């Protein structure tokens, strides 16, 4: 480390670009750091201040050659002589100076030759720096200090102002003088006379001292400014390459060189002191870099004084003709500042007349109007917000009052909700407990009627097959030997036919009857008793299903009374809960128990409105005060039950129990369906349950046509031979087809015209009746009766038909029969042919 003597001024001048770096026409900025030091003199306490240094940025010329004659910037620099603070050091260096005086003169002569190649500083500003007068009386009586001040003034006089621009020689001499004074000390130099013409001679016997500023301007040194010990490097030039050495190495080289020179001078007088200096140098060299950096930063911070900054700013404002800013009270302490002053473009001088504002009275008035308008809009918005909040307050007050008034009603609603929740929960638990028993009893009765229907159809088909086999054997002239089962069936069949014949004779309708028109549904009395006993057992079980339950959960009237109370309290919540959709299913278990013995195919003497459940639903709400009997939910409850309970139940009966060849069943069925449709307006063709019902009817008819419309084919001789029984069997099958047509015509108010046309014309007449007419004798009166029977079963509203194609086969058979008989007997046939046959 360098020794850090007190009160030593160190000023550095930095340059950003070296002479080795190439570039074209770029701007270079020269930074000058100013250090102001106020030294307290012994008795007068008078401070010495330096003139401010101003930096101007100018475009840098191309760096082909570096010369002081080229304008690189406007620099005004002040060179201050460092004043040593140690007298002993000054005396030692003064002795050494005497020996080096002669060599310094030679160095100056050599520097004159080479100074033309150095960088010159051209000052273009017209600001003059007047030299300061030194008051010798106020300074210490020490002649060394007085001599230093005089030489400082002498140096400044050569740079008196911007008008007295120094030449390259003067700049070089001042620079070398400053470097020599830094290296050897001011007092010893002054004591030895100061050299020729007030300049300090350059040393030829010491090594070159590298400038401490890392980025200062690169100066090619004089060949004599070298150490005596290094004669080979006498012509060495400083360039950017030499400055690329790391900061640490350069510092240590400076320290070692400085301490070596100091040690050589000290060896002449005191060897012990030299050894101590060497030890001190080694110790300082080992100190951390952080301490050196802190010391260097402290020295730089002392380089600039506030007074110089103020003076420089005032001069800058005076040059640019600008008013000074507000006064800023700078602290007494010193601070680091990088000062860079750029020449402002010189404008027309107006005598420091302040610029006049361009604002007019109209602009001011407009701004005031806009401001008033903004304030008014703000006030209006606040008023609107106030009104809105007041309205909210009024609304809330009204709402609170309404809630307080509705509190009794809300309390009653809450009580009703809780009661209904508990009631419905208990009701569902009760139904779930009994529903299995109800389903078991109902299924038992349905199974009984289903098995009965299947047995009758199977028996009918067996009888037809047995009779056909007997006639077929007779037609072929073979002996028919039936089995015991066949004989048993024939015996039973003949007994049923004899029984029906006796009944018709008693009724007086035997003459109008034709074999085959009866449905053959007779059953033994034992079988009828079995059916009655099964139904009775089911009704007995149904009566005991809810014997352990309260009437509130088993009586339809009591159950509906609870829902009526709910409607009276809160109709909206009742509707929102979709209770109307759930009531039919909720009440269906109780209704089904009453319908266990209900058979619409056999008995229509007891319609639905005779049942207790129907009467209970009609009386719902009649005992409630204030209840609207026209309530949509209550009024639509019975139609909903019919649609969701009775129609599906009736569809099941058709699929399992209905026999299309039974004219009695068909008439009862069509009567009941027509009654339901008439009393229930909600039942339409688009209703899902009605669609399923109609599909079941059509399916049952098609099944009968495919399986039960058998027409036997015999030879003409067999038909003419009455002993074979073939003609009688053919006639029986024909009249059974006529009966099926009659059964289909019963649905004329239920089924569509197209559906009936498909069943009667296409399904029965063309497939069976026409074939039977073709096999029958043409001139027989019985054949004419058959033709008239077919004509009678065709609905009159179908004639004349829009399309006569389906009637072609029938017309052909009728024409043959008409031609074979007298026209008086076939008048009806002829008229039908004329009506149906197209022109």
From TrEMBL:
<feature type="compositionally biased region" description="Acidic residues">
    <location>
        <begin position="39"/>
        <end position="51"/>
    </location>
</feature>
<dbReference type="InterPro" id="IPR012890">
    <property type="entry name" value="GCFC2-like"/>
</dbReference>
<feature type="region of interest" description="Disordered">
    <location>
        <begin position="214"/>
        <end position="299"/>
    </location>
</feature>
<feature type="region of interest" description="Disordered">
    <location>
        <begin position="175"/>
        <end position="200"/>
    </location>
</feature>
<feature type="coiled-coil region">
    <location>
        <begin position="365"/>
        <end position="392"/>
    </location>
</feature>
<dbReference type="Pfam" id="PF15458">
    <property type="entry name" value="NTR2"/>
</dbReference>
<feature type="compositionally biased region" description="Acidic residues">
    <location>
        <begin position="264"/>
        <end position="278"/>
    </location>
</feature>
<feature type="domain" description="GCF C-terminal">
    <location>
        <begin position="558"/>
        <end position="707"/>
    </location>
</feature>
<keyword id="KW-0175">Coiled coil</keyword>
<feature type="compositionally biased region" description="Basic and acidic residues">
    <location>
        <begin position="91"/>
        <end position="110"/>
    </location>
</feature>
<feature type="compositionally biased region" description="Basic and acidic residues">
    <location>
        <begin position="247"/>
        <end position="263"/>
    </location>
</feature>
<feature type="region of interest" description="Disordered">
    <location>
        <begin position="1"/>
        <end position="71"/>
    </location>
</feature>
<feature type="region of interest" description="Disordered">
    <location>
        <begin position="83"/>
        <end position="110"/>
    </location>
</feature>
<feature type="compositionally biased region" description="Basic and acidic residues">
    <location>
        <begin position="28"/>
        <end position="38"/>
    </location>
</feature>
<feature type="compositionally biased region" description="Acidic residues">
    <location>
        <begin position="222"/>
        <end position="233"/>
    </location>
</feature>
<feature type="region of interest" description="Disordered">
    <location>
        <begin position="483"/>
        <end position="529"/>
    </location>
</feature>
<protein>
    <submittedName>
        <fullName>GCF C-terminal domain-containing protein</fullName>
    </submittedName>
</protein>
<feature type="compositionally biased region" description="Basic and acidic residues">
    <location>
        <begin position="175"/>
        <end position="187"/>
    </location>
</feature>
<feature type="compositionally biased region" description="Polar residues">
    <location>
        <begin position="483"/>
        <end position="494"/>
    </location>
</feature>
<dbReference type="InterPro" id="IPR022783">
    <property type="entry name" value="GCFC_dom"/>
</dbReference>
<dbReference type="InterPro" id="IPR028211">
    <property type="entry name" value="Ntr2"/>
</dbReference>
<keyword id="KW-0539">Nucleus</keyword>
<dbReference type="GO" id="GO:0071008">
    <property type="term" value="C:U2-type post-mRNA release spliceosomal complex"/>
</dbReference>
<feature type="compositionally biased region" description="Basic and acidic residues">
    <location>
        <begin position="502"/>
        <end position="517"/>
    </location>
</feature>
<dbReference type="Pfam" id="PF07842">
    <property type="entry name" value="GCFC"/>
</dbReference>
<dbReference type="GO" id="GO:0000390">
    <property type="term" value="P:spliceosomal complex disassembly"/>
</dbReference>
<comment type="similarity">
    <text>Belongs to the GCF family.</text>
</comment>
<dbReference type="GO" id="GO:0003677">
    <property type="term" value="F:DNA binding"/>
</dbReference>
<feature type="compositionally biased region" description="Basic residues">
    <location>
        <begin position="1"/>
        <end position="12"/>
    </location>
</feature>
């Amino acid at each position: 480390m360098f020794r850090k003597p007190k009160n030593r001024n160190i000023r550095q001048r930095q340059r950003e670009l070296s002479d080795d770096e190439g570039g074209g026409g770029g701007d270079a900025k020269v930074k000058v750091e100013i250090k102001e030091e106020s030294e307290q003199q012994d008795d007068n306490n008078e401070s010495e201040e330096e003139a401010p240094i101003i930096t101007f940025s100018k475009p840098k010329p191309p760096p082909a050659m570096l010369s002081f004659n080229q304008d690189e910037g406007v620099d005004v620099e002040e060179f201050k002589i460092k004043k040593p603070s140690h007298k002993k050091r000054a005396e030692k260096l003064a002795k050494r100076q005497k020996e080096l005086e002669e060599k310094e003169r030679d160095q100056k002569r050599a520097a004159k030759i080479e100074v033309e190649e150095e960088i010159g500083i051209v000052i273009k500003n017209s600001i003059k720096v007047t030299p300061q007068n030194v008051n010798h009386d106020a300074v210490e009586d020490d002649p060394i200090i007085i001599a230093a001040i005089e030489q400082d003034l002498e140096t400044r006089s050569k740079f008196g102002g911007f008008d007295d621009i120094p030449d390259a020689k003067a700049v070089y001499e001042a620079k070398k003088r400053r470097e020599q004074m830094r290296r050897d000390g001011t007092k010893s130099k002054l004591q030895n006379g100061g050299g020729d013409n007030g300049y300090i001679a350059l040393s030829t016997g010491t090594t070159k001292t590298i400038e401490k500023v890392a980025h200062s301007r690169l100066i090619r040194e004089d060949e004599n400014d070298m150490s005596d010990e290094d004669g080979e490097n006498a012509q060495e030039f400083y360039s950017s390459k030499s400055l690329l050495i790391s900061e640490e190495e350069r510092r240590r080289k400076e320290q070692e060189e400085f301490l070596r020179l100091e040690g050589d001078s000290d060896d002449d007088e005191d060897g012990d002191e030299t050894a101590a200096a060497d030890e001190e140098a080694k110790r300082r060299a080992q100190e951390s870099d952080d301490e050196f950096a802190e010391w260097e930063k402290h020295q730089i911070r002392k380089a600039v004084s506030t007074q110089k900054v103020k003076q420089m700013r005032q001069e800058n404002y005076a040059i640019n003709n600008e008013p000074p800013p507000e006064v800023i009270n700078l602290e007494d302490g010193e601070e680091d500042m990088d000062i860079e002053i750029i020449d402002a473009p010189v404008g027309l001088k107006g005598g420091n007349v302040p610029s006049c504002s361009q604002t007019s009275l109209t602009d001011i008035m407009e701004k005031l109007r806009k401001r008033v308008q903004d304030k008014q809009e703000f006030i209006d918005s606040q008023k609107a917000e106030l009104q809105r909040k007041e309205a909210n307050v009024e609304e809330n007050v009204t709402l609170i009052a309404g809630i307080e008034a509705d509190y009794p009603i809300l309390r009653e609603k809450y009580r009703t909700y809780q009661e209904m929740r508990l009631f419905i929960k208990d009701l569902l638990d009760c139904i779930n407990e009994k529903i299995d028993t109800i389903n078991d009893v109902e299924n038992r009765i349905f199974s009984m009627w289903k098995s009965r229907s299947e047995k009758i159809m199977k028996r009918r088909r067996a009888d037809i097959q047995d009779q056909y086999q007997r006639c077929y054997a007779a037609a072929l002239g073979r002996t028919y030997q039936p089995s015991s089962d066949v004989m048993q069936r024939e015996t039973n069949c003949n007994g049923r036919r004899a029984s029906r014949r006796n009944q018709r004779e008693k009724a007086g309708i035997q003459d109008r009857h034709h074999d085959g028109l009866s449905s053959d549904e007779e059953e033994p009395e034992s079988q009828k008793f079995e059916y009655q006993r099964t139904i009775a057992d089911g009704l007995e079980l149904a009566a005991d299903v809810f014997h352990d339950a309260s009437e509130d959960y088993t009586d339809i009237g009591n159950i509906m009374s609870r829902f009526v109370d709910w409607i009276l309290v809160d109709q909206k919540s009742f509707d929102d809960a979709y209770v109307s959709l759930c009531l039919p299913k909720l009440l269906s278990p109780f209704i089904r128990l009453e319908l266990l013995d209900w058979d619409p195919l056999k008995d229509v003497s007891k319609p639905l409105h005779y049942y207790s459940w129907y009467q209970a639903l009609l009386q719902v709400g009649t005992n409630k005060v204030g209840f609207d009997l026209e309530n949509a939910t209550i009024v639509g409850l019975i139609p909903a039950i019919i649609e969701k309970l009775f129609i599906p139940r009736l569809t099941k009966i058709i699929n399992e129990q209905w026999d299309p060849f039974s004219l009695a069943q068909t008439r009862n069925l069509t009567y009941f369906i027509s009654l339901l449709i008439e009393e229930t307006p909600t039942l339409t063709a688009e209703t899902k349950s009605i669609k399923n019902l109609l599909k079941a009817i059509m399916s049952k008819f098609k099944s009968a046509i495919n399986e039960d419309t058998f027409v036997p084919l015999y030879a003409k001789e067999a038909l003419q031979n009455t002993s074979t029984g073939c003609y009688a069997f053919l006639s029986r099958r024909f009249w059974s087809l006529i009966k099926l047509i009659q059964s289909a015509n019963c649905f004329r108010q239920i089924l569509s015209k197209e559906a009936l046309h498909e069943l009667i014309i296409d399904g029965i007449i063309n497939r069976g009746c026409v074939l039977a007419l073709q096999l029958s004798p043409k001139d027989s009166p019985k054949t004419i009766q058959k033709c008239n029977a077919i004509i009678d079963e065709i609905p009159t509203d179908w004639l004349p038909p829009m399309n006569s194609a389906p009637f072609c086969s029938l017309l052909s058979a009728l024409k043959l029969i008409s031609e074979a008989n007298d026209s008086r007997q076939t008048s009806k046939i002829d008229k039908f042919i004329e009506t149906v046959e197209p022109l």
